[in-house]
Write a structure and sequence with these properties.
The chain is α+β, with helices and mostly antiparallel strands. It folds into 3 domains: 1-64 and 92-151 and 239-340, FAD/NAD(P)-binding domain (3-Layer(bba) Sandwich), CATH 3.50.50.60; 156-238, D-Amino Acid Oxidase, Chain A, domain 2 (2-Layer Sandwich); 353-426, no CATH class. The protein has 11 helices and 24 strands. The chain has helices spanning 11-22, 43-52, 93-106, 206-216, 218-223, 268-287, 292-320, 326-338, 388-397, 403-410, 414-426; strands at 4-7, 27-30, 38-41, 68-77, 83-92, 110-112, 116-122, 125-130, 135-138, 140-143, 151-153, 158-165, 172-178, 182-189, 192-199, 228-229, 234-237, 241-243, 251-253, 259-260, 353-361, 364-372, 382-383, 386-387. The strands form 6 sheets. Strands 3, 4, 5, 12, 13, 14, 15, 16 and 17 form a 9-stranded mixed sheet that branches. A 5-stranded parallel sheet has the order 6-2-1-10-19, with helices on one face. A 3-stranded antiparallel sheet has the order 7-8-9, with no helix packed on it. It is globular. It starts with a strand and ends in a 16-residue tail after the last helix. Mean pLDDT is 89; it is low at 438-442. Bound molecules: flavin-adenine dinucleotide (FAD). The site of flavin-adenine dinucleotide has 35 residues, from helix 1, strand 3, strand 15 and helix 6.
Length: 442
């Protein structure tokens, strides 16, 4: 019987399964092959994939693999005619998912090439019924099914993707452009072209979007010259979403199932992989006897933060193009409504304070006293290994506080203690001056 069932074998599900299996857990990974499509990868997403072992390391830079091509030039026109120029890597999504799944299997996860139909909890176990009729049971369940399930949703967006064959060019690159009612990303590699359009589902049939987009974006029109559709079009939900935290540390969410970003961010894979690593650490922490609720809260806080950041960025992206029409204004407004109310400007600054929060300590999630400031609402536990709350307490309570005394009390190197003192002073947590090795007074 497995210890953990992971439902969904996309990038996030496979990475969390691989990490937990490598740490000794018996993992069942449930999921089918995904449909082929292309996406763009930033340098930091690619670095994470190299770290996960899914891509060759720096020796592979600029090289083609069957998963990745790049770096390729990205060109486009954005708000006010601003030219977008940069680089990215092209990734074939189904091959990436297969490679990550293979890593999970080689770490010991058992792959069930199936769909999970239901998951129910009884007798301290999750019971997952698969489409084949097989039933899996495990104490822990990880939902990695992507953008589905109960959720706090961003604006309703749909993506329509189509692959084309074109005359061979031997070149690769990507383009991005906007229309009055959608935005469009396209990528070409030799004789293949992938076009993806994101808009509101009610704005006509997605198949008509392509002609409308080509009519408004000359570079796309040019890319489509002599292009012949190859394969079925792929429709994908593209709404941002925040999974509903269940407050139940036997049931976790990871990747898009936890936090899905607007695809315009271009950082979905990065966040999915980072989130998978975080959940693997939390689950491993509780398997080793750590406090389950503490680990759960640690993950939930970070997922919420990633969601807020993504929503703010998306609101800004769409607002920039507000003059292009209702699609842009409505989408920006829908994102803006998800942002927390701004605090009134006149509100007095909150003084730095000590709070008990879950933090990461050598791969385990434990509660520690942290310093919470307006700039660091999540709290900072240590600087260079010096616990900040203990340092502040030392200066608040020692009769005759000195740097040397702090070094002795905390048993940390002097240089690290001095850096930590500077941090406390800079943030207004420690108001007094502490001259080097001189008593600061009691
Ligand atoms: C249109 C669009 C364009 C995007 N472009 C980019 C981009 O250019 N760059 C980027 O970094 N990110 C991009 N993203 C985001 C990126 O695709 C996701 O963030 C990433 O795929 C999340 O990985 P995941 O494993 O959480 O989810 P997914 O990749 O969605 O994987 C979930 C898996 O679970 C499976 N599944 C679902 N239900 C079940 C079930 N009941 N049982 C078993 N399996 C199930 C699905 O079939 C799928 O294989 C884009 C997203 C969209 C929608």
């Amino acid at each position: 019987m497995p210890d953990i069932i992971v439902c969904g074998a996309g990038p996030a599900g496979s990475v969390v399964a691989q990490r937990l299996a490598a740490a000794g857990a018996r993992v069942a990974l449930v999921g089918m092959d995904s449909r082929p499509s292309w996406e763009g990868l930033s340098a930091r997403s690619r670095a994470l994939l190299i770290e996960a072992g899914a891509l060759p390391g720096e020796a592979g830079f600029g090289r083609e693999t069957d998963i990745l091509v790049g770096p390729v030039a990205r060109r486009g026109i954005w708000a006010g005619g601003r030219v977008v120029a940069g680089t990215e890597w092209l990734v074939e999504r189904s091959r990436l998912a297969t490679a990550l799944r293979a890593l999970a299997i080689s770490a010991g996860a058992v792959h069930e090439p199936d769909l999970a139909l239901t998951a129910t909890r009884s007798a301290d176990h999750w019971w997952v019924r698969l489409r084949s009729g097989k039933v899996l049971a495990a104490p822990l369940l990880i939902d990695a099914r992507g953008r589905r399930g109960p959720q706090r949703r961003g604006p309703c967006l749909l993506s329509f993707g189509q692959r084309f064959r074109t005359p061979a060019t031997g070149r690769a690159g990507t383009g991005i452009g906007v229309t009055d009612s959608s935005w469009c990303w396209w990528a070409w590699h030799d004789d293949l072209l992938w076009v993806q359009i994101v808009g509101q589902p009610r704005a006509g049939h997605p198949a008509s979007w392509l002609a409308a987009a080509a009519a408004q974006i000359p570079a796309l029109q040019e890319a489509l010259t002599f292009a012949v559709a190859a394969g079925e079009p792929v429709a994908r939900p593209a709404h941002a979403r925040l999974g509903l935290g269940h407050g139940d540390p036997t049931r976790w969410q990871v990747g898009d199932a936890a936090v899905a970003h607007d695809p315009l961010s271009g950082q979905g894979i990065y966040e999915a992989l980072r989130g998978a690593q975080l959940v693997a650490t939390a689950v491993q922490s509780l398997r080793e006897g750590g406090d389950a609720l503490c680990a759960y809260r640690f993950v939930a806080d970070r997922q919420d933060e990633v969601w807020q950041r993504g929503v703010a960025r998306a609101a800004e992206f769409y607002r920039e193009l507000g003059e292009r029409g209702a699609f842009w204004r409505d989408t920006a407004a829908a994102y803006a409504r998800l942002l927390p109310e701004q605090a009134p400007l006149a509100q007095p600054a909150v003084a730095p304070r000590i709070e008990r929060r879950p933090v990461l300590v050598e791969g385990r999630i434990l509660e520690r006293d942290v310093i919470v400031t307006a700039q660091h609402p999540r709290g900072v536990w240590h600087i260079g290994g010096v616990p900040l709350a203990s340092l502040k307490n030392y200066f608040d309570t020692a009769e005759s506080a000195t740097i040397a005394g702090a070094v002795a009390a905390l048993d940390r190197p002097q240089a690290a203690v001095v850096s930590a003192i500077h941090w406390l002073q800079k943030t207004g947590t420690l108001l007094r001056q502490v001259p080097p090795n001189v008593s600061s007074g009691g």
